[in-house]
Write a structure and sequence with these properties.
Elements: H1 3-23, E1 44-52, E2 55-63, E3 68-76, E4 84-95, E5 98-106, E6 116-124, E7 127-130, E8 138-140
């Protein structure tokens, strides 16, 4: 073999060893560890604004990676009325498209502390659909 061919083969072998060594670490984790029941597609802040005739509602829904959530809603029921604000906090878990919210604090009269709400959900292209609870999808903010 000529000296040039040996040099090219040595370069190819060295490249293969470098690339193979860099990608073959057995300790690498492909995905970060999360708590059981946490759907990373839900983690973040979601926003929904509804305007129906003279009623306006803005809802922000935040799911945290630690399994807590918050819902903040600001509603104006008639154009000249002062806005009313509501909030709900608690813990959440999601399994097989079923979202379970366990309420620890609520300023909404119909939702008491200790109440557990179970609904079906789906995330499609940065939109969150919560069936039987909201008629319209939330848009992901972050």
């Amino acid at each position: 073999m000529t000296q040039r061919i040996k040099h090219i083969l040595l370069l190819c072998l060295t490249s293969i060893l470098i690339v193979g060594g860099a990608t073959a670490c057995g300790d690498d984790k492909d995905e970060p560890e999360t708590k059981p029941g946490i759907d990373m597609n839900l983690v973040g802040t979601w926003y929904l604004k509804l305007i129906l005739e003279s009623n306006t509602s803005e809802t922000t829904l935040t799911f945290n990676e630690d399994g807590t959530f918050s819902i903040k809603e600001k509603a104006v029921l008639e154009e000249e009325q002062e806005p009313v604000e509501f909030s709900v906090t608690g813990t959440w878990k999601a399994e097989k498209n079923t979202l379970t919210l366990s309420v620890t604090h609520s300023t909404i009269p119909d939702i008491e502390e200790g109440k557990e709400i179970e609904v079906e959900y789906e995330v499609i292209l940065n939109q969150l659909y919560i069936k039987d609870l909201f008629l319209f999808p939330f848009d992901k903010v972050n």
